[in-house]
UniProtKB/TrEMBL annotation:
This is Uncharacterized protein. The lineage of its organism: Bacteria, Pseudomonadati, Pseudomonadota, Betaproteobacteria, Burkholderiales.
Amino acid sequence: MACCERGGKGRLAKLYKDFGDVREDNFKKWWTEGGRGATLFSENVPELTLRELSDKSQWDEAWTADEVLVVAIPLTSSRRYIQSRLIRLLDKRHHAEKPGRKKSNLAQSTASYPLERNYTIENLQKTLQVYDKYLQVKDEKPKVPLWKIGEQMRLVRTAMTSDDISLNEQQDRRNVMGASVKRYIANAEKLIANTAKGRFPLTKK
């Protein structure tokens, strides 16, 4: 946020140039503005089409056995034989999945900012909301306990306190709520630190 306030100056200048001012609450506007989301996170996958190779120079060194099946078809054989063999080969090798990058192919990603893992938008939003709330109150005196932040946001409904439960039960619930808030804050700080390194969304050090 400090980088945004300085107009993109500082050690995160490269990140600011790519992501722009992220203080805007309208995620859809941020994502679609100038095609930003697609530019940053989309994969530049070359289109593969079924075709005949008439020369060895048409072979692409980037092809892998998982993505391309190369066969030699003897044109002297009958059409029925060729078709039956192709069907058997396809049954053995063809395992179509939904388009997109598989987790195991992260190192081969062509995106400017490869997605380290699949997070739901809801989870990321909740993490940001908790962190924003924490930043708002972290310097207040007296210090606001983490469990109170969670209660204000109704973060864990089963850990909400009330006047009709025992003091021990209240303390147990506050411990659960506080631990949950602490976990969200820790994840948010890791997300921010890793995003600055071009790794998003990642909650590992």
